[in-house]
Amino acid sequence: MTAALRLAVALAAIALGAMEALAQEQTWVAVATDGRRNFGYAVGMATSEAAEMTALAECGPGCRLVLMGAARCVAYARSGPGNAFGAGSGATREEASDKAWNECNQNVPADSCSIRVAQCFE
């Protein structure tokens, strides 16, 4: 085996190892709500199916999935009267919270939404 071929094989092995490590670090988040008071969330799940089942089970009957994604953090916001909500995901708690808060406040006047949960997989 030539030196160039050995180097190419070594680089391919390193790249494959990095991709496998990244795949192992990928986690799923989900948010479910009934559109009123009830909500459920999942963070740090290994699969999208696990995230969906966890969020729906935590929320309860009559809930629907409103957010699913591969991320490390998730947030849920709701307006005071409960007539608007927002969900967000991201790499940081702040990113997820900003997305949830902004989505919620698009539907109500005077920034009446607040973050109900913001959690990251550590």
Largest sheet: 3 strands, antiparallel
Gyration radius from CA atoms, angstroms: 19 Å
Q: On the 0-100 scale, what is the average pLDDT? A: 84
What is the domain tally? 1
Could you estimate the helical fraction of the residues in percent?
Answer: 25-40%
Across the major sheet, the strand order is 2-1-3
Q: SSE order, as H and E?
A: HEEHEEEHE
The number of helical segments is 3
The tally of strands reads 6
Judged by helices, strands and strand pairing, the structural class is alpha+beta
Keywords for this entry:
34% strand; 122 residues; alpha+beta; 3-stranded antiparallel sheet; globular
Explain the overall architecture.
By secondary structure, the chain is α+β, with helices and mostly antiparallel strands. It has one domain (3-120). The protein is 39% helix and 34% strand. The protein has 3 helices and 6 strands. The strands form 2 sheets. Strands 2-1-3 form a 3-stranded antiparallel beta sheet, with helices on one face. Strands 5-4-6 form a 3-stranded antiparallel beta sheet, with helices on one face. Strand 4 (73-79) and strand 5 (85-90) form a beta hairpin. The longest helix is centred in the first third of the chain and has 23 residues, at 3-25. The protein starts with a helix and ends with a strand. The model is unreliable at 15-24 (pLDDT under 50).
